Amino acid sequence: MRDWKEDDKHQQARVKPMLLQPRLALVCRKFYRILSDMDHNVTVFSCGAPRMLGGHRIEESKRLFFYPSKNSVDPRLKIVQFSDLTFLYVENLQFDLSGLFARSPLLHSLSIVTPYSNLFLFRMLSHSVANQLTHLSLTMETGMWLEPLISLQSLRFLRLHFVNWHDYTSTARSNCQEIVPWTLPRLSSLALCGGMDEEWFVALLPFIERHCDMVIQHDNQLVLAGRSERYEVVTAHHFPALKIYRGWVNELFAVQSNSNTLPDKTLPLTMLLGSESVHTLSTRINGGDAVPSGQLGIRLAGTHYIVNRVMMCESWETTAQDLGIPIDQAHIFAIRWLISRGIRVVDCHEVDFDDFTGSWPKPAESTHDHQVLADENQTQLATPSLPVYPPTAGMALAQPPPQSWWMRAVEFLLGVLRRLRLA
C-alpha cells in the first residue's frame, strides 16, 4: 500500500493534466484552423497573371478571387477546366462568365461586387450551373432591379448589400416593381446590409414576406434613411421561426411598447455579436442596474424571442485581441453583464467565456509553472530573431486574401447548419 506521500504525488499528477486541458483545447483549435486553411487552393487574379497561393496548379483551384485590374484577363481563364472549384468571387469583371460556369461543375458559392450590369448578372444566373448554387452574395447599387425570371432552386444563403440606394423619387419605378422579385424555395439564411431610403425598404418587403416562414438564420445590418435622420431598421419580427439572429445591440435595450399584444409562447434565440457590438454594449450598460431575480435571457421588443445565448462571430482569441481583453475591463464587464442576465456567451466554436478565461495565467502559480515559463522566456531570448522587412506588394499578394465578412459568414453558417443536423 502506498503511503500518504505517494498518494499526494499521485493526486497531483492527476490534477496537473486537468489544469492543462483548457490550454490544450485552445492549441488544438489553432492547429485545426491552420490545417483547414492549407487545403483551400486559393487562386487570386490581380494585375494580370494569376497567383496560386497554395502552390497548386491553376486547374486545381478551389477558390477563385477576381480583383479590379486594367490588364487583360489571363487567357487560361477561358479554357481551363476547374473541376474542383467551389467558390468564386467576382469584382469589377465585365466579361461573360457563362463559359467559366460550364467548366466549374462543383461551383456552389458565388460573390459578385459592383460595378456590373443587370445583363451581366442575368447571363450568369440564367446558366444551368447557377441552379446548383447554395450561397450567393450580391452588391447592388441604386436602380439595379433584379430580373424575375431567375430560378435558383438550391439557394440556401443569400446576402444583399445595398449601396447608395438614395434619392428615391428620381429613380423609383412607376409600377412599384419589387427590388428582388425572386422566390427561393430552399432559402434558410438571409443577410441584409448597407443603406437605403426608407421608401426603398417598402419595395424589399414583399421578398421578405414571401420567405419569412423559411428563414431560420438572419443577419440584419441594414440602415434606413428617413426625412431627418438615419436609423437602424429592426427586422426580427418579420421572421417567426428564427434560431440565429444578428441584429443591433440597441435591440437588447428596446422597451416593450405593449406587453398585452405579445404572444404568451416564447422561443429561444441565439444572437450573434461581433467585437464592435461588445464595444457598443459596454457604452450602453449601467453598472448599477438591478438584475431581476431568476432572469433567463432578454426578450426582444415586439417579438416572441428571448435571447438566451450570445455567440461571438470570431474565436475568443480573436475577440480578445480586438477588444484588448483581459486588460480592458470594460469589455469583460459587458460580457459578464450578459451572463448575469441568464445568457450563455460562447465564441464561434461554442466555447464558453468562463472556459476561455479559465485558460488565463493565474496570479499565483506553482514553482514548476514559473520554472517552465522562465525556461521558455530564456529560450526565446537566446534564439536570434529574424530581421523584419517592410511589406511589399509581392509579399502581400503571396499571403491568402483576408477573409471578408461574406466568407466568414458562409463558413460560420455552414458549421452551424452541420451542428443543427447533428442535433
Question: What does this protein structure show overall?
Answer:
By secondary structure, the chain is of the alpha/beta class. It has a domain at 250-360 and 405-423. 33% of the residues lie in helices and 19% in strands. The chain is built from 12 helices and 15 strands. The protein has helices at 4-37, 98-102, 118-125, 168-171, 198-210, 275-284, 316-323, 329-340, 353-357, 367-382, 393-398, 405-422, and strands at residues 42-45, 50-52, 63-66, 87-91, 109-113, 135-141, 157-165, 189-197, 217-225, 230-232, 244-246, 267-273, 298-299, 305-312, 344-346. The protein has a 15-stranded mixed β-sheet that branches. Strand 7, helix 4 and strand 8 (189-197) form a beta-alpha-beta unit. Helix 6 packs across helix 8. The longest helix is centred in the first third of the chain and has 34 residues, at 4-37. The two termini are 47 Å apart. The model is unreliable at 376-406 (pLDDT under 50).
